[in-house]
């Protein structure tokens, strides 16, 4: 009787170990999937009021959503709102203000570091590109050739993508 109880206990122990290993493996696979499709980004500038964003890699981008993308001139990743999409017209009025269905703002001539900035060329936004913007007057965004229109494919290929504000 004692031997049969010991066999049952060993069988349950092995079953528990197998289930624990399977559960642990499942958690690893789940975590790996989450980290491949999402990341956390902290906004360190004043260009947007939100400070933390969940980046959803490989998601479609629409007007009003936020985008995380790399910028080689600034040598960092930027988070901006998508306010212009394919077919929208970029206009610069007589005063120098940039417009895309609404006033975007007056571009600056120089960065905070004193580097010259160049205003984006007016025209239609082509398919596959978006105009990235932040409301801060000194925001470094698509108003400038140094940022330009952001390629959706390039942003998504860089493992960046739609940014969802957390707080």
Main CATH class: Mainly Beta
Can you count the beta strands? 11
The number of helices is 2
On the 0-100 scale, what is the average pLDDT?
A: 78
Strand order of the largest sheet: 1-2-11-3-4-9-10
Order of helices and strands: HEEEEEEEEEEHE
Beta-strand residue fraction? 25-35%
End-to-end CA span? 62 Å
Q: What is the annotated CATH architecture?
A: Ribbon
Give me the Rg, rounded. 25 Å
Low-confidence stretches: none
CATH topology: Umud Fragment, subunit A
* Class from helix and strand fractions: alpha+beta
Major sheet details: 7 strands, antiparallel
Q: Level of helix content?
A: 25-40%
Care to give the gist of this entry?
With 167 residues, this protein is of the alpha+beta class.
Tell me the layout of helices and strands.
Blueprint: H1 2-37, E1 38-42, E2 52-57, E3 66-71, E4 76-84, E5 89-92, E6 98-99, E7 103-105, E8 123-124, E9 129-133, E10 150-151, H2 152-157, E11 161-165
Antiparallel strand pairs: 1-2, 2-11, 3-4, 3-11, 4-9, 5-6, 5-8, 6-7, 9-10
């Amino acid at each position: 009787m004692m031997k049969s109880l010991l066999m049952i206990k060993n069988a349950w122990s092995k079953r528990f170990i197998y289930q624990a290993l399977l559960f642990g493996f499942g958690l690893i696979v789940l975590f790996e999937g989450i980290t491949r499709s999402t990341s956390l980004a902290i906004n360190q500038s004043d260009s947007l009021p939100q400070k933390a964003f969940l980046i959803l890699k490989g998601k479609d981008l629409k007007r009003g959503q936020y985008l995380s993308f790399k910028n080689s001139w600034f040598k960092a990743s930027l988070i901006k709102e998508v306010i212009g999409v394919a077919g929208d017209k970029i206009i610069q009025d007589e005063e120098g203000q940039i417009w895309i269905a609404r006033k975007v703002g007056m571009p600056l001539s120089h960065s905070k570091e004193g580097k010259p900035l160049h205003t984006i060329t007016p025209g239609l936004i082509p398919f596959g590109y978006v105009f990235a913007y932040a409301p801060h007057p000194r925001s470094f965004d698509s108003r400038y050739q140094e940022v330009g229109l952001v390629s959706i494919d390039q942003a998504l290929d860089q493992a960046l993508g739609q940014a969802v504000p957390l707080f």
